[in-house]
Fold this sequence. Notes:
By secondary structure, this protein is mainly α. It has helices at 6-13, 25-36, 40-43, 45-51, 56-83, 91-98, 105-117, 121-136, 143-163, 165-194, 220-232, 250-279, 282-287, 292-301, 303-338, 345-348, 351-367, 374-402, 404-407, 461-476, 494-517, 524-529; strands at residues 419-420, 426-427. A hairpin with a 5-residue loop joins strand 1 and strand 2. It is a multi-pass membrane protein.
Amino acid sequence: MPHGDTASIHSSIFSKLVPHNKLGTLSCISLIVNKIIGTGIFLNPSPIFQYLNGNVGLFLLFFIIGGIIIFSGLLIYLEFALNLPFKNGGELNYLIRVIPNPRGLIGCVYSFSIVLLGFSSGNSFAFGKYVLYAATGTESVDDNLVKLIGVGCITFCCFLHMKYPKQGSNLFNFLGIFKILILVLIIFIGVLAFGGFLNLQPTDNFKDIWAFHEGTKPSIYSISVALLEVIYSFKGWENVNYVLNEVDDPYHILTVAAPLAVLLTTVLYFMVILAYLVVVPKDEMLSSGVLIAGIFFNKVFGASVTARLLPILISFSNLGNVLVVSYAHSVVNQELAYNNYIPFSCVFQNFNYSLMLHWLVTVVVLVAPPSSEIYEFIVNLYIYPGTWINVILTAGLLYLKFNKKKENWGEFHLKEDEELSEDGSVVSDELQTYYPHRSETDPLLPPCEFKPRPKIISTPYVCVFIFLIANIFLAVFPFVQPPNAASLDIPYWMFPVLGTGVLVLGAVFYYIRPYVTKKDIKYESDYIAS
């Protein structure tokens, strides 16, 4: 598993380009917060609690486990990022390091996952749903109208990034702060209720936290689904890794801002869960199929206010998610084009065309499927391929860690010919980024100014194994038949089969592409140098 001739790549393609406004610490925190906090924290706790049959102890423990898993994943991504050049693409760069040969294969596999399944359809659909809910006061709305509003949502976001990028980043910064304030409000209300400052009937949810409702233990399947839902609710912690070329200080962002954003979101999630338990009685959480946040706000503000206020808050949350996902994934689409992993790569090297590609796929996935169960299906389809990617990355990291010297990894990464900068920090070509085929007129893609990195993080083995086991579980469990399989409009196996099939399709594309184009296809450094 050779590490490749990255130094020669760097020296052949460095160029000075026109600078642009980089993303600062707040913007990078917002990229993560906006992606993690979507609809889940307002909706998922109730079904998770039901899957666990009202066991408060397990309910809280599962969210702690979810936090441990995502922090393990964050450490793994940090180790990859700090051992490799700072550049856009996130997992793409890590996959290439793990599976460098045959050149271009893993890039094509990953590109099909990102381009075809890296859409914003789920949150666009949710945005349309809650906008109509706020306007009509009822959840029974026309799905076609929901889809139309969803198309308007993704169109607005892509147009904003295309024509007014600074305003786009300002908006997702605002929405990131707004989401945090919503969660802080829920927590504050929970504290007031716990202290007896609100005129609310106290709950007995904390009297016997390990008791199951009516003494009935949930099935292994239900417990597994609950864990699956908890882990899914934290999706988004890796978002800033996709856009490292666009940030002002990658080392600071990776080692300070990203962990801070994940820690902040994890703590807020746990505190919000506690607030729900303080205000909402166990019986209502078990019997209700509506938003748990809806029950919470109903008890505090009354039904009339909640019917309008809550859908507006959730729709803003969805908008923030669509804004950051459309931006980050379009940047990744562009990086895929720079390395010639996708058809018409010369076209999609332009950021605006990459945005249009993301818009097109999002609209098709949003409009094409049947309306029944569409939201859950889209969310699962969007998330699933990433579990196989994480399995490959984590297994690859284990190989690199077990063969550090051979693979020039970790403390063996720095070469003997490194020079010291004026401030005594290490400077090496290996630590610098490169920019293949960057257009000097493209304001969104400047070179990332090199800042020396004084330290490389080594992920503890226990964290690597936790993340590996969690992702194997996430990859395999969706193939298990649920008890209600016969009543589902969309077969339970559909999203894991489609998700896996898209990855396989990327490999098929790699092998048949030379026969279709009838010419030698070049990838990565070969394509860059051509």
